[in-house]
């Protein structure tokens, strides 16, 4: 793929155009990177609504029909369902169980479990379990 850079004289003139035969995962990832994590989602914490960039999400979990978003040091609630978030989060997010979605960029390491599951260690040293039915896809996405 050919890449071209052209300097412009003002931020208003900045743009990126990608010409490709199909919209692959790599193209989607490049688009996300170029957009700079502009996508924000409303989250609830202590009765206050906070708009937070999805790039700061570590993982999202559904418990008792409520959806929680975990960041490095905090936990927020969202009114969105997992399937709604899954559609909007982007290519760096992957479902790892029926009740959890993880940000692949926030995984420090993974290890296999005897039962066929995997355990992922996040950048904040929190450990989460990857269900057996999602192991194949996470291995593919992490090039394992």
Describe, in plain words, how this protein is organized in 3D.
The chain is α+β, with helices and mostly antiparallel strands and 144 residues long. It has a single domain (11-141), classed as OB fold (Dihydrolipoamide Acetyltransferase, E2P) (Beta Barrel). Helix content is 20%, strand content 35%. It is built from three helices and ten strands, in the order H-E-E-E-E-E-H-E-E-E-E-E-H. The chain has helices at residues 25-35, 82-89, 132-141; strands at residues 40-45, 48-53, 59-63, 66-70, 75-78, 93-97, 100-103, 107-112, 118-122, 127-130. It has a five-stranded antiparallel β-sheet with strand order 5-4-3-7-6. A hairpin with a 2-residue loop joins strand 6 (93-97) and strand 7. The longest helix has 11 residues, at 25-35. It is globular and about 55 Å long. The model has no long low-confidence stretch (mean pLDDT 89).
Overview features:
OB fold (Dihydrolipoamide Acetyltransferase, E2P)
Spell out the blueprint of helices and strands.
Layout lengths: L24 H11 L4 E6 L2 E6 L5 E5 L2 E5 L4 E4 L3 H8 L3 E5 L2 E4 L3 E6 L5 E5 L4 E4 L1 H10 L3
Antiparallel strand pairs: 1-2, 3-4, 3-7, 4-5, 6-7, 8-9, 9-10
């Amino acid at each position: 793929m050919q890449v071209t850079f052209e300097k412009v004289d003002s931020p208003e003139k900045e743009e990126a155009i990608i010409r490709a035969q199909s919209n692959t995962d790599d193209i989607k990832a490049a688009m996300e990177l170029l957009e700079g994590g502009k996508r924000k989602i409303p989250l609830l914490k202590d009765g206050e609504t906070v708009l937070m960039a999805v790039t700061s999400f570590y993982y999202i979990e559904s418990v008792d029909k409520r959806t929680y978003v975990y960041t490095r040091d905090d936990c927020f609630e969202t009114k969105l369902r997992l399937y709604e978030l899954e559609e909007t989060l982007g290519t760096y997010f992957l479902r790892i169980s029926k009740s959890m979605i993880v940000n692949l960029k926030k995984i420090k390491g993974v290890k296999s479990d005897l039962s066929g599951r995997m355990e992922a260690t996040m950048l904040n040293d929190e450990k989460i379990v990857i269900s057996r039915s999602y192991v194949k896809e996470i291995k593919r996405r992490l090039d394992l």
